[in-house]
Every structure is written in C-alpha cells, then in structure tokens.
Design goal:
Structural class: mainly alpha
Number of helices: 7
Length: 175
C-alpha cells in the first residue's frame, strides 16, 4: 500500500514560497546554535577527517541546498496534478512522505552532533538521511521528468560528503 501524504503537508509544498521557506527556516533554526559550538574547545579539539572544508563554507552551501530541496518538493507536489499513472502518483506521494522525514533527520543531525555531541548517533542519522535523499530523488525522477533530480543531485552529493565527514569524525575521535 502506497504512503499517503497528509493534506496539510501537501498543500504546504504546493506553494513555492512555503516550499522553499520551510527547509530554509528549519536549516537556520538547526544551524544557529551550531555557529557557537564550532568555536568551542570540544569541536576545535576534534581530529578532522581529510577534506573538511573551512567552516565558512557551510553557511553558503546549506541555504542553496535547502532552497533547492524545497523547490524540488514543490515540483513534485505540482506534478501530482498532471501525473496520470498510478505508479507515478505513488512515487510522488511516497517521495513527499520521505521528503518530510528527511527534513526531520536533517534538523536532528545538528542537535545530535553539535548539541548532544553524539558523533556516533549523528553518523546513524546522516546515513539514514543520505539513504532517504537518494531514494526520494530516485522516486521523483520519472514523474517529474528529471526536474527534481537536477535540483536534488547536489544535495545527494553533499549528503554523501557530510556522511563521509561524520564517519571520519567518528573514526578519528571515537574508535
């Protein structure tokens, strides 16, 4: 049985302003406390994996990714109006359910890694986030004729890179 998206969540992403604004707002809310923690001794004293970008990169990259993922959700929601095949509608609906789930995972990651300082649990979150984003992208590809894939491919790559970084932090500091 296909997953069904609650009407209020579907309506939210049908509006492009809300669709883009929601992940931007959640990203800002989860990232705001992070800015303080990255300057504290706990984070400064962690052994970093190779390839970690300067911390100034993150507040540039993430808003672009959040806006892109929000617009992809909007495209998927709008595609529900024109998709006539049951399999296409199921893929869009399931992808929208996963979209909201990955927003929760994304929001939880900062609190887990930086707030609770639980690098291992953050790695599990990051791996689940990566899997959900890749699967969501796959589900939406056909019914949106690749439009969402173009929007989400950078997010998939960044989520993979972030999982690598998290795994590196875990390996270098917790093993």
């Amino acid at each position: 049985m296909p997953l069904a998206i609650p009407t209020i969540l579907l309506e939210a992403v049908r509006n492009p302003v809300v669709a883009v604004g929601l992940p931007l707002t959640l990203g800002w809310a989860s990232g705001f406390p992070t800015a303080k923690v990255v300057r504290e001794p706990w984070y400064q004293n962690l052994n970093a994996p190779p390839g970690r970008p300067p911390r100034q990169v993150f507040p540039i990259v993430w808003p672009i990714l959040y806006a892109s993922m929000g617009y992809a959700a909007h495209v998927a929601a709008k595609s529900l109006e024109t998709t006539i095949t049951p399999s296409g509608r199921d893929a869009l609906n399931t992808g929208l359910v996963i979209y909201y789930g990955q927003l929760v995972l994304n929001f939880a990651w900062s609190s887990t890694f930086f707030g609770a300082k639980q690098i291992g649990f953050a790695l599990l979150d990051s791996a689940a986030l990566l899997g959900s984003v890749v699967y969501m992208t796959k589900l939406w590809d056909g019914p949106t004729r690749g439009q969402t894939t173009v929007l989400l491919a950078p997010y998939c790559l960044w989520a993979a890179f972030a999982t690598y970084l998290n795994g590196g932090y875990y390996y270098l500091n917790c093993m």
